[in-house]
Write a structure and sequence with these properties.
This protein is 51% helix and 11% strand. It contains 15 helices and seven strands. Helix 10 crosses helix 11. The model is unreliable at 1-9, 11-23 and 330-336 (pLDDT under 50).
Amino acid sequence: MAAYSSLAARALFVFAFFIDNKVTAYLDHVFDDGRKRVKRNIIWEPAANEPVPISKEKQLLRKDLLIRRGEFGSLHGSRQLEVELECCELGLTFNQALSIRKQLLIKKARMNNWKLKDQDSLEEVISSFTKQEKSLGDIAAELDLPPVSVFRAILARRLHIANKRRPARKIVQSIISEDNEEYVETFLSNWELEELQTAKKCDVIGYSTINTSPEEWENELYNWLDGHQINYAKEEDLKSMGTSSTTPDCLLLDEVRINGHKVRWIEFKSYYASGLRQNWWFTKKLLTQSKKYEKEFRGEGAIIMKSGFSEILEKPSSSTLFLDSGPLAADNICIY
């Protein structure tokens, strides 16, 4: 609770500084007043001996194990086993492989989504599904798209025709989530509902009930910071102060160095940062995000990747410190 007691005291200064809704004055107060700041040097022992060599990712990709045509669901049985065995051979974790796979599937879904934008193609899909000539799974396999994404396109078109005044997107989401019985009964036949329920079981891209939020894991670090009396502000604290729409998960209010790098902010990510060219779009977003934080909070920061990261992200030109779960996976952190 140390962070909150200190933060509450500083909040009195914050309101005066934020009348014009700018972050500059607040940062001047926090970062330029050395008397009020604790200095800490943290040795962050990584959970892995080193970042993942890009050669291992490339080898895994060349094995053609991660993605198959028409497959957008979780890996089970023999499919899971063959990926796990390959990971063991390459020295990768299964979670790293799943993260790489999900990024590849998202990219594939985006690239193939034009098939649902083409009116002639969409009308053919709608006709074959409505007439029960093809199952949703068969249609999705032919298009090589997530089945729930295909269903969403069919339903959105149906709702658009039925009632143009209603907010179709919200209704579509409500039907897919099955949280509004009236909508489900109005717009779906029993057969279509069964098709939807089947599709949701084999689609982690178009629909997922898995909570990928790193909130619980983030709390481990917050608890650790509290235990060492390091003052910080969470993202919700910053937003409530009206700082900016660009806010990291954690802004350090004390002078903290991690492995020799001065760190003012920390961002949490619950996946693996791939170095593959095929997945670079996701990694590029990380780097772009870090540049925004550096500009907004006038300092470099750290991005903690729960499942690790590729060696590509450790280039000398990168100003952001990338870390794996480290002490959050095992209590092996040293502070002095």
